[in-house]
């Protein structure tokens, strides 16, 4: 209904009129309904319309003042309304901030807990990639609240949603928030990350068939899986950084060739090595380890510049 977007010329949501549509779903199908809220006014309108769940998105979650205002509005609305009071609100969801800030996420959880409504965290990643270390920190600090996975926003690609969903079981998460659309190509926003209903049905069926049990001897311990997820994420970033460095090396090589400059610059090589060893020493990395890695990177850089 209210869609925080980067650009004002994109779809901003259907607005308050959509509350009536969700009420119709409640009545016709008898299922709980939920909507995202980004302001105190959104929360008040949604509660008055009898929404079962509210969630706060990543952009709003980055602003603790806005989250506190929403929490205060929920409390105030619950106190003054008898028909649609706080006890009719079944739960609140809080997504992680767009930046990997575990303390801010934990603070927002505490702010929403002030309302008295059940609170759950949603890990949606940062900039279309996981932030496993942040999520692990929050999961460890607040094992008392559910944590869901949002593979749609985490990847930004429909094809990656089923791949990421395996982490629900591996990390002992409590469920998932998945974007589903009957016709993704016609979606007004986030079309690339939405899966079709039949794809969701396939995943649910496969999950119920192959879901590991707690007594499965082949199942990895959840804590080990969290740590491995952190390692995998760091490895991905490491290779992306190296690839980006090689791309810049290629551009440097083009400049050197155009200006008749030799690819190998011994003084530059030595200066970088000393800087890396100095900085690495502060991080507890031995000089020999740094030199081995630097030499490998430098050799490939020279090849790119040749």
CATH architecture identity of the largest domain:
Alpha-Beta Barrel
Mean pLDDT: 91
Strand order across the biggest sheet?
1-2-3-4-5
Q: What is the name of the CATH class of the largest domain?
A: Alpha Beta
CATH topology of the largest domain: TIM Barrel
Give the amount of beta strand, in percent.
Answer: 5-15%
Could you describe the largest sheet, including whether it forms a barrel? 5 strands, parallel
- According to DSSP, the number of beta strands is 5
Shape descriptor: elongated
- The structural class is alpha/beta
Helix content: 40-55%
Radius of gyration: 24 Å
* Total domains: 2
Q: Helix and strand succession?
A: HEHEHHEHEHEHHHHHH
* Count of DSSP-assigned helices: 12
Runs in which pLDDT lies below 50 for 5 or more consecutive residues are: 212-217
> What is the first-to-last residue Cα distance?
55 Å
CATH fourth-tier homologous superfamily of the largest domain: Aldolase class I
Structure write-up:
With 306 residues, this protein is α/β, with parallel strands linked by helices. The chain has 2 domains: 18-210, TIM Barrel, CATH 3.20.20; 222-305, Up-down Bundle (Chorismate Mutase Domain, subunit A). The protein has helices spanning 18-29, 40-48, 58-61, 64-80, 102-113, 132-141, 151-155, 161-170, 197-210, 222-258, 266-282, 287-305, and strands at residues 34-36, 53-56, 91-95, 119-123, 147-149. It has a 5-stranded parallel β-sheet. Helix 4 runs parallel beside helix 5 (102-113) and helix 10 (222-258) packs across helix 12 (287-305). Mean pLDDT is 91; it is low at 212-217.
